[in-house]
Amino acid sequence: MRTLPVTTARREQLVDITRAVQETVSALGCRDGICHVHCAHTTAGLTVNENADPDVVHDMLLSLDDMVKNLRGFRHGEGNSTAHVKSSLMGAHVSVPIADGRLALGKWQALSFCEFDGPRQRHVWMTCTPSL
Amino acid sequence: MRTLPVTTARREQLVDITRAVQETVSALGCRDGICHVHCAHTTAGLTVNENADPDVVHDMLLSLDDMVKNLRGFRHGEGNSTAHVKSSLMGAHVSVPIADGRLALGKWQALSFCEFDGPRQRHVWMTCTPSL
Amino acid sequence: MRTLPVTTARREQLVDITRAVQETVSALGCRDGICHVHCAHTTAGLTVNENADPDVVHDMLLSLDDMVKNLRGFRHGEGNSTAHVKSSLMGAHVSVPIADGRLALGKWQALSFCEFDGPRQRHVWMTCTPSL
């Protein structure tokens, strides 16, 4: 298992970590299999989505904010309950196929770290499992 | 890694791909492990849910539509921001156990491709990793 | 593949299954790899989130309830469509890295079974794949 640091700069942000993950896959020498990336935090997550137009990221964060409202009934003392919910909606992990040493992603796909309670110093854990 | 084509017929649709995935697992000869399926698109996703009653699919799409609203603040020029958000909510991949050569799914579970910006010609990538 | 029973006591509930999953990882003797956990039901799911403050669980269930409304247009006869939607939002599986025989989870992370249509007797399936 390898640790990759991720530094976030804002309260909510998507950070494209595709390149760093690819470099680690290459360093590990995995040719074919699955690359598993785990977010070790409960107010952040991971997703695979658009890599090109930053407006998609803007719209994604706006949509999550509209969807996950700050409710009167919330009890959690830290006041970041919406960040926990968004974390579970995106998920704490993604896994991506590795084919011939490269992450297999669609033309418009990137692997992004989703910060919902930053800015913070974060990290993800990477594990590669070989395929048949 | 194997590629499976998926043809969608409507703007939003769930396509049950369980049988095609099972056939590929059998062709690969995987007995025990994990079958990973990756959706290579940013306006579609994958989920494991009800296989029997088509009304559940209807209600799922209706609910996602109610939840992910077309907001005034959206900037993405293509006008399909809700499809990107729904893609991340469902997720770009699912993985399913393989036991004795068969996908291990619950009695009512199917593996479905989720189209949110069709109709289109789509594809998924399949990878099998053996278990201990 | 190993089966772990999960008993739920309420209509909606998060059950922390981290300890039971860890015990099975130890019993299987997996040192390094990925632990895959599959929820075999369509009105329940799995997530990795806060392990410490029960108020986070309360707020998570409240938020999902606010987000996934019981719509007039629903057709599914069993009346549990929101449970199916919440199931897909959380996801039917999680996978967690295993490092040196231990589930690699962040300080505040737990692996939780998400019941949305209980109380019921449920089960999850566990599979371990070794890493490079």
Comma- or semicolon-separated keywords:
homotrimer; 132 residues; three-stranded antiparallel β-sheet; 3 helices; 8 strands; 27% helix
Please, could you describe this protein's structure?
Three copies of one chain form a homotrimer. The first copy, chain A, is an alpha+beta fold and 132 residues long. Chain A is built from three helices and eight strands. The first copy, chain A, starts with a strand and ends with a strand. Chains in contact: A-B, A-C, B-C. At the A-B interface, β4, α2 and β5 of A face β3, α3 and β8 of B.
Q: Largest interface, with Cβ-Cβ < 8 Å?
A: A-B, 36 and 37 residues
Count up the domains of chain A. 1
Write down the Rg of chain A.
16 Å
Strand order of the largest sheet of chain A: 1-8-3-5-6
Structural category of chain A is: alpha+beta
User: How would the global form of chain A be characterised?
Assistant: elongated
Strand content of chain A: 35-45%
CATH arch. level architecture of chain A: Sandwich
* CATH level-4 homologous superfamily of chain A: YjbQ-like
Mean pLDDT of chain A: 97
Low-confidence stretches of chain A: none
Give the termini distance of chain A in whole angstroms: 20 Å
